[in-house]
Design goal:
Oligomer: single chain
Mean pLDDT: 80
Radius of gyration: 25 Å
Low-confidence stretches: 1-46, 174-184, 375-396
Number of strands: 14
Protein name: DNA polymerase iota
Strand content: 15-25%
Keywords: DNA synthesis, Transferase
Order of helices and strands: EEHEHEEHEHEHEEHEHHHHEHEEHHEHH
Shape: globular
Number of helices: 15
GO biological process, one term: translesion synthesis
GO molecular function: damaged DNA binding; DNA-directed DNA polymerase activity
Organism: Catagonus wagneri (Chacoan peccary)
Distance between the termini: 50 Å
Strand order of the largest sheet: 8-9-3-1-2-10
Length: about 400
DNA sequence: TGGGGTTAT
DNA sequence: ATAACCC
């Protein structure tokens, strides 16, 4: 990754801060190799303050594309998904292209705009994890947010460095602070807050806690109001490997079962590759659809089921056909949602593998084998002894 | 509005 | 199973 494409920001996450707004300490020298002594001006000794770096990669997809193809550097570049420019580099922004702009509008604003297709996220995903893994060398406490943001809790590292500096009697330090601008808290909540006359952080700070709790529920109300004072005690939760793998495709119209099956097969094939590389095995599969609706805001429906254990074991082995039985299962889920005897109009299909587990190493005849519900013969009676929310495809 | 992800209910 | 949130 090009260094100038990365903007390191350092955040002073405080538990009991009294600042009116959330303060952010920008480490001018960057997170790594910077001057850790910065902190003794900000953090009283013995305080429970944390040091959390928030790293946000600029126009991430566009950067990946420019690295893949250096000829794109210096040209206005947009990354296209369907008819949208989902992100673009700074050359393009200078010329008026915005994120999530229509391709037509973007071309109109900027006829020289170079577009690359970014519907396949594979390379973005790979780069994204490379960044996360790099950060994990500094601390295991790295939390991902999307593909292009990471939070790193460096409290321990900083404390250790601080001790060193104090013993060296060295403390030449500069601090520059900056304050969070108004944040968007989430679309639905924003609308509800607006209805209450709350449109700024200041409004939220001064609003009645009681009324807010009644309006939004105690959980959301207390959280966002604390956030409005810059108080965020939420831990940096290590993301670790992903909890789900999904692939989706949107389109203008899918109105036949054959069409749907073809699309599902493509999504599934890609997913099987991914899950194979991961090494873990999914125990649940889900099919998600979006039906065409003239105006109603995007709503999705889904059906999921456990993956039969005999199929799970074949995943990743390569020499067995997993596609056929999985397509079978997915088409059953499909017909469970869509009455194929009636006309239908779908605009999105998505397949998701979740409930990922480390592959079983249990061998026949061992204790582990009999203690693994999905392997031992007791699993059938065992499964029926408790309530399953999922549809059982084994029952079909 | 794409093509992903997470957690809460 | 869905909703809401994040990017």
């Amino acid at each position: 990754m090009e260094k100038r494409g990365v903007e390191p920001e350092e955040e002073g996450g405080r538990n009991e801060e009294e600042d009116a707004a959330r303060a952010m300490e920008r480490a001018e020298a960057g997170a790594a190799g910077g001057s850790p002594a910065v902190l003794d001006q900000v953090v009283p000794a013995g305080s429970s303050s944390r040091v959390i770096v928030h790293m946000d990669l600029d126009c991430f997809y566009a950067q990946v594309e420019m690295i893949s193809n250096p000829e794109l550097k210096g040209k206005p570049l947009g990354v296209q998904q369907k008819y949208l420019v989902v992100t673009c580099n700074y050359e393009a922004r200078k010329l008026g292209v915005k994120k999530l702009m229509n391709v037509r509008d973007a071309k109109e604003k900027c006829p020289q705009l170079v577009l690359v297709n970014g519907e396949d996220l594979t390379r973005y995903r790979e780069m994204s994890y490379k960044v996360t893994e790099l950060l994990e060398e500094f601390s295991p406490l790295v939390e991902r947010l999307g593909f292009d943001e990471n939070f790193v809790d460096l409290t321990e590292m900083v404390e250790k460095r601080l001790e060193q500096f104090q013993s060296d009697e060295l403390s030449t330090v500069t601090v520059s602070g900056h304050v969070y601008k108004n944040q968007r808290i989430g679309y639905k909540t924003t609308k509800r807050l607006e209805a209450l006359g709350i449109s700024s952080v200041r409004d939220l700070q001064t609003f009645s806690s009681k009324i807010l709790e009644k309006e939004l529920g105690i959980s959301v109300a207390q959280r966002i109001q604390k956030l409005s004072f810059g108080e965020d005690n939420s831990p940096v939760t290590p993301s670790g490997p992903p909890q789900s793998f999904s692939e989706e495709d949107s389109f203008k119209k899918c109105s036949s079962e054959v069409e749907a099956k073809n699309k599902i097969e493509e999504l599934l094939a890609n997913l099987l590759n991914r899950v194979c590389q991961d090494g873990r095995k999914p125990h649940t599969v889900r099919l998600i659809i979006r039906r065409y609706s003239s105006e109603k805001y995007h709503s999705r429906e889904s059906r999921q089921c456990p993956i039969p254990s005999h199929i799970i074991q074949k995943i990743g082995t390569g020499n067995y056909d997993v596609m056929t039985p999985m397509v079978d299962i997915l088409m059953k889920l499909f017909r469970n949602m869509v009455n194929v005897k009636m006309p239908f109009h779908l605009t999105l299909l998505s397949v998701c593998f979740c409930n990922l587990k480390a592959p079983s190493t249990a061998k026949k005849g061992t204790i582990d084998y009999y203690l693994t519900p999905s392997l031992s013969t007791t699993s059938r009676s065992g499964k029926r002894s408790f309530k399953m929310k999922d549809t059982h495809m084994e029952d079909f």
